[in-house]
Amino acid sequence: MAIVVRLDVELARRKMPVGEFAERVGLTPANVAVLKNGRAKAIRFSTLEAICRVLECQPGDILEWVDDEP
Known about the structure:
CATH architecture: Orthogonal Bundle
Largest sheet: 2 strands, antiparallel
Low-confidence stretches: none
CATH class: Mainly Alpha
Distance between the termini: 13 Å
CATH topology: 434 Repressor (Amino-terminal Domain)
Number of domains: 1
Shape: globular
Mean pLDDT: 93
Structural class: mainly alpha
Order of helices and strands: EHHHHHE
Helix content: 55-70%
Number of strands: 2
Number of helices: 5
């Protein structure tokens, strides 16, 4: 996968529990787990905006492009 989700890093830096984060963003804990584990195929801009608002960060703080070609 070329896009890496670093949500777990940002949650750990803020010592924020997944349940609290999910509630504040408006996601289920299961959907947060999908994002954290890199299994998400897409993310809505409204969800990304809510994540950035709650974590007080920029999209680049939680999403990273990694070249997966040799």
